[in-house]
Design goal:
mainly alpha
């Protein structure tokens, strides 16, 4: 087990490694396995997988940003009312 102060040296050693591209055949195999695992995780229902992806990539960030906007508007109005 390495000492905690050696972590920086380990990261430097990893950064020094040259980049290596995977061969196309191996990359295709990894992609196929990942897609199969994704399909199994969603019960084989592609509609559910797409809906989940849409929710997590588009709708959830939009809802969160809207909630933050509403809260900030309320907070500024409340602070302004207290100030006056």
């Amino acid at each position: 087990m390495s000492e905690p102060d050696d972590k920086g040296h380990d990261l430097d050693a990893l950064r020094a490694l040259p980049p290596r591209d995977a061969d196309p055949e191996h990359a295709a195999l990894v992609r196929a396995r990942a897609l199969a695992a994704f399909d199994v995780a969603h019960g084989g229902d592609m509609w559910l997988a797409r809906a989940t992806a849409l929710w997590s990539r588009v709708l959830l960030p939009t809802v969160l940003a809207g909630a933050v906007g509403v809260y900030l508007t309320w907070a500024v109005r409340a602070a302004s009312a207290l100030y006056h």
